[in-house]
């Protein structure tokens, strides 16, 4: 009890003094009050760990005092005294949030045990509040970094739909930040205090996925020795994030559709529907429209999920986001690795901004981590970058290029120039190919052909998948 603050409330002076002496010997800081109003004003002035109160007080009744605790920002854990034969009021007190009760007359040893338990609980409560706060900070909207048009559109959309119950479909190549967007949606919704349960539909064999999602009754199949609740049930009140939904089997797709429509699930081997209140967020790196045409994805489910599509552009379509992301990762890894890498030279940064990032933000994050670990201080220059990042030199400087003394590799230089201009055009047109082609003065099909040759065509979802029909 060392250093803990305990508030003892009783109008019986002898009891108050007895407890004060005892608890002080245990190292606690003891505050006493003879009535409820004194107790309340004490708790308003300072942070109290445990409130130990009699239920019969001269002014308010102890139960009313417990009700008042709810208005405090950080309420203490409450323990109440009851006289013999008044168990019903003890039960009432527990309903109002008291942790435990002690019947009078009591042994001091009893007090010690109950208080130890209360202080342990208080500690957990504090840690829980802190963790929740940290999570909330971590997934604030502002943590979706990026000033590019494409990323700003994503941020606006996240902000607009976070606090609704609408189903959201997040579409983006691998490593673009789909999970980060899903978390931002959850932690900025009124469901934030409830769980966000993540299910990766491609990582779990489809036979197991069904019981993973919906749970099963005892004996539902060989090996189902006891009843198990599924992810939908455990996310009740919160959010289910179905990652890689494009990999879900048609059989499960049908079941999921039912859940979305009826808001109820059925455990495997069960025969009664169970109501669940969950918001569904799904993500995919696949082109679901294509999968639909191939008969691999149900059309009805697609339209049910696609109520609000959020398409995260690949990093190569928002190269201007690179410096801010690099700085963010630099800070993060310097901190976690105990290093002091100061940054990237303009030449190195320039090379990063001309690379096409097939692994998107995750690839960039790994590169920065690698440089922090390998170099650890000073600045990263072009020569320090590993291949293929360092291969993108020399910089093509506009139209007045000077032939260097050692000569150039003209075909390579032309390819670089082409690549750089194509990437810039794609960014400026936010990935809309017809616009980018116009900026480059070429036909759209020529642009697509060039992109294919330069390795700039994604295998992921096309523009059409965003249902905004651009491009
Ligand atoms: N806009 C962003 N701002 C800050 N960090 C980002 C951003 N986008 C992605 N990241 C970071 O990049 C990494 C990859 O993001 P995330 O796991 O959300 O991608 P993903 O699309 O789910 O990838 P995958 O398809 O491979 O599962 C994470 O560490 C994430 O925090
Ligand atoms: Mg992911």
What do these coordinates show?
The protein is of the alpha/beta class. It has 4 domains: 5-135, Response regulator (Rossmann fold, 3-Layer(aba) Sandwich), CATH 3.40.50.2300; 145-312, 3-Layer(aba) Sandwich (Rossmann fold); 315-395, Orthogonal Bundle (Helicase, Ruva Protein, domain 3); 408-471, Homeodomain-like (Arc Repressor Mutant, subunit A). Helices cover 44% and strands 13% of the residues. The chain has helices at 13-25, 36-45, 62-69, 87-95, 108-138, 149-161, 178-187, 206-214, 231-234, 250-262, 288-293, 299-305, 322-337, 346-352, 360-374, 410-428, 433-440, 444-453, and strands spanning 5-9, 29-33, 50-54, 77-82, 100-103, 168-171, 196-200, 239-243, 264-265, 274-275, 279-284, 308-311, 340-344, 377-380. The strands form 4 sheets. Strands 2-1-3-4-5 form a 5-stranded parallel β-sheet, sandwiched between helices. Strands 7-8-11-6-12 form a 5-stranded parallel β-sheet. The longest helix has 31 residues, at 108-138. Residues 178-179, 243 line the site of magnesium ion.
